[in-house]
């Protein structure tokens, strides 16, 4: 049976090799984006906290308020008071010794928590950390790392050297104005590794985040079902962030001393916060993607007067039209088989498109080469 006229053409199927290549590209890009997400957050934390003076001071600025730090300062002040009393030759009684310790224990929290002490603490951290970062980055003129050796560079003026050594001044013409003197004070392989790690972190912090976003967007663009592809990225990233936060928390509290635990907790607090925020945002995005199709109404939800939707009504009409055309063809074929060799006028009477009596049928002009017949109008 010939297909009904006016039916929409069938959609063109994609070549199998093209769909297979797009699947491989999507899987590779999304997997790489998932693996790069925790690495990007780790590098961003190291660059913003460990290798940044402002971030380092902000993380450890309130460390003196920790009870472990206050107990250590209290012990140091107690030892200093005992040494001072022994130096002055005053033999304090046991009761006086206990009284002094109680006074020190009460005074240390007030001293350490005061704004003046915190200001001094942050100033010391700022100066020490800024000078320390200049060494692995090669910006320090006094301390440099050459290979695995820490070298102290001391520029000495020629005149100062001659005056200090008592040599004749005629040698000043032969010596340069400034004579650099370098002394290696430490030779450890860890120094070279630290310099390499700092420079690598500085480089990766600039390129990892744009690269991760570009790979994720490329994978989503190549995916045929972008909603499912986005869910396949968000769910693993949220899971990795949750496990990462738990791992950092366990490693932080595995330190041997309370002081190291307090310092490590203060330094890793920004990383834990970033991981928790990432997991929360991914979970919210996943919930939105799962509930959005249920909240948005469908386009074919409208109904006609008979209670059927427009799409179902159109399908019913098309089915009825195709059924009437098939019945017409069957009647025509039966009439031809029953009548035998009759004139064409009897068949026109059976056909619904019969020519009125008295009017000769119109003859179609002969089709030329390459011409096409015009389709019959739909009934």
Spatial separation of the terminal alpha carbons? 17 Å
Classify the beta-strand content into a percent band. 5-15%
Overall, the morphology is flat
- Tell me roughly what share of residues is in helical segments: 55-70%
**Structural class computed from helices and strand pairing:** mainly alpha
- Biggest β-sheet: strands ordered side by side in the sheet: 1-2-3
Radius of gyration equals 44 Å
Low-confidence stretches: 300-313, 342-354
What do the pLDDT scores average to? 75
Oligomeric nature of the chains? single chain
Helices and strands, in order, run as HHHHHEEHEHHHHH
Give the tally of β-strands.
3
Largest sheet: 3 strands, antiparallel
């Amino acid at each position: 049976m010939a297909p009904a006229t006016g039916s929409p053409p069938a959609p063109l199927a994609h070549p199998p090799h093209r769909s297979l290549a797009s699947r491989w590209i999507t899987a590779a890009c999304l997997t790489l984006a998932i693996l790069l997400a925790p690495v990007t957050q780790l590098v961003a934390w190291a660059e913003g906290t460990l290798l940044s003076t402002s971030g380092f001071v902000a993380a450890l600025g309130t460390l003196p308020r920790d009870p472990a730090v206050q107990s250590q300062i209290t012990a140091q002040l107690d030892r200093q008071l005992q040494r001072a009393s022994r130096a002055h030759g005053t033999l304090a009684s046991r009761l006086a010794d206990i009284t002094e310790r109680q006074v020190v224990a009460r005074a240390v929290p007030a001293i350490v928590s005061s704004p003046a002490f915190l200001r001094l603490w942050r100033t010391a951290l700022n100066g020490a950390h800024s000078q320390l970062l200049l060494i692995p980055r090669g910006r320090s003129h006094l301390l440099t790392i050459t290979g695995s050796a820490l070298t102290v560079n001391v520029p000495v003026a020629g005149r100062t050297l001659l005056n200090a050594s008592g040599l004749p001044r005629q040698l000043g013409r032969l010596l340069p104005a400034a004579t650099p003197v370098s002394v290696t004070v430490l030779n450890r392989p860890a120094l070279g590794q630290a310099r390499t790690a700092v420079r690598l972190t500085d480089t990766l912090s600039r390129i990892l985040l744009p690269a991760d976003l570009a790979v994720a967007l490329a994978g989503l663009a190549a995916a045929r079902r972008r909603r499912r592809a986005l869910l396949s990225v968000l769910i693993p990233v949220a899971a990795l962030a949750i496990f990462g936060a738990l791992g950092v928390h366990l490693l932080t509290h595995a330190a041997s001393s309370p002081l190291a635990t307090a310092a490590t907790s203060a330094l890793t607090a920004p990383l834990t916060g970033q991981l928790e925020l990432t997991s929360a945002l991914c979970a919210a995005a996943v919930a939105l993607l799962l509930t959005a199709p249920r909240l948005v109404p469908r386009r074919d939800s409208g109904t006609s007067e008979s209670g059927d939707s427009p799409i179902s009504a159109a399908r019913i009409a098309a089915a009825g039209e195709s059924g009437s055309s098939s019945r017409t063809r069957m009647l025509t074929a039966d009439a031809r088989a029953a009548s035998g060799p009759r004139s064409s006028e009897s068949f026109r009477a059976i056909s619904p498109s019969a020519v009125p009596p008295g009017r000769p049928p119109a003859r179609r002009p002969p089709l030329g080469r390459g011409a096409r017949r015009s389709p019959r109008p739909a009934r």
